[in-house]
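Hi P.,

Sorry for the delay on this. The queue was packed all week, but I finally got your sequence through. Input first:
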Amino acid sequence: MAVRSLAVPASNLNLDAALNDHFRIRLVIVDDSPELLEVFCNVLRSQRAVEIVGRARDGSEAVEMTATLNPDLVLMDVQMPRMDGLSAAVVIALHFPNTCVVLMSGDDSPQLRAESRACGAQAFIYKPNFNNEIAGTLELVRRLGRHASSFLE
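Then the structure:
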């Protein structure tokens, strides 16, 4: 049986549809480090529920790809040249409300988590824990779409 891509925004799906094995999250991944981008892509390829539809190197490219590709999720680094992840998250949340944003960083400070949430991100992943956190974060986004929130208080 072929796996289909998501045709409607994740936030418009009910829980039963979201849990269906044939549901796939269309994802754009963004990081200015080519090495880390490749590592993250390799981890994501092991996730059945993910289809990587684009790769970007900064926030400006992420916004452009979001406009063109209409992904369900943008998984994005915080610190990047040209436009950082926080600024791009604001633009994506404002102009593409059906696209979820998950920010990631090597800085796990409460202040950065709060800034990420304030910029419209649904979740935050501490990069050293990426392998351990990505599956749970994807499942949360798959189930709840834009209503997802995995921020620690």
